[in-house]
């Protein structure tokens, strides 16, 4: 326990408090010896990063309980409704490989805050194969992961507005069940408009 606290940069008293609040899973026991591992350290680093971003211990405790005991990761990530996205299960090492070592506690906390990541046992679950591949490609091109996540948050704001616009448009003229059936049309409009916008931006720069 003392070694884990030292590596995490917290006091043993704080570590005991986190254990009592069930913010970290119990250690593996062999007789009277309690063994902690890299997963405990990663959880502590994530807790620290979430606290620095303004999350409360109660909120973090709810996340930890869902991660450790709730098997419905789709519900945790907000994927109860039909979706075209495919979740991806990764080990912590595989996630680090995707982003060339740029998976810091701060970036991990930001991705969890956005709902991109969840944890199911010892696996990490990314909400979307497409988002994972695109963000990984951007990082390989030299763009810091923190900037990719910041852009993702801004894009989320605009796409939420566009989704609301199309849903309201369809519901004014069609039954509610038509929203899921017609969603590919909305995506095609957004793809085409984004493509045209990129053309205009590149032409101005040229």
UniProtKB/TrEMBL annotation:
Gene3D superfamilies attached to this UniProt entry: 1.10.1660.10
SMART domains reported for this sequence: HTH_MERR
DNA-binding keyword on record: yes
Keyword tags: DNA-binding
PROSITE patterns associated with the record: HTH_MERR_2 (PS50937)
Pfam families tied to this protein: MerR_1 (PF13411)
UniProt keyword annotation of DNA-binding present: yes
Domain HTH merR-type: 1-66
Domain of life: Bacteria
Protein's UniProt name: MerR family transcriptional regulator
């Amino acid at each position: 326990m003392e070694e884990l606290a030292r590596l995490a940069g917290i006091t043993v008293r704080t570590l005991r408090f986190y254990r009592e609040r069930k913010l970290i899973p119990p250690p593996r026991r062999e007789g009277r010896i309690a063994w902690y591992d890299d997963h405990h350290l990663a959880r502590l680093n994530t807790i620290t990063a979430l606290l620095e971003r303004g999350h409360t211990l109660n909120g973090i405790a709810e996340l930890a309980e869902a991660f450790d005991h709730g098997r419905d990761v789709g519900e945790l990530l907000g994927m109860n409704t039909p979706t075209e996205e495919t979740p991806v299960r990764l080990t912590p090492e595989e996630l680090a490989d995707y982003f060339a070592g740029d998976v810091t506690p701060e970036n991990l906390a930001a991705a969890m805050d956005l709902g991109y990541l969840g944890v199911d046992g010892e696996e990490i679950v990314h909400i979307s194969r497409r988002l994972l591949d695109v963000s990984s490609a951007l990082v390989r091109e030299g763009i810091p992961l923190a900037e990719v996540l910041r852009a993702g948050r801004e894009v989320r704001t605009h796409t939420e507005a566009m989704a609301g616009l199309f849903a309201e448009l369809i519901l004014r003229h069609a039954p509610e069940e038509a929203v899921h059936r017609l969603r590919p049309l909305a995506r095609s409009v957004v793809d085409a408009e984004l493509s045209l916008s990129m053309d205009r931006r590149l032409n101005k720069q040229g």
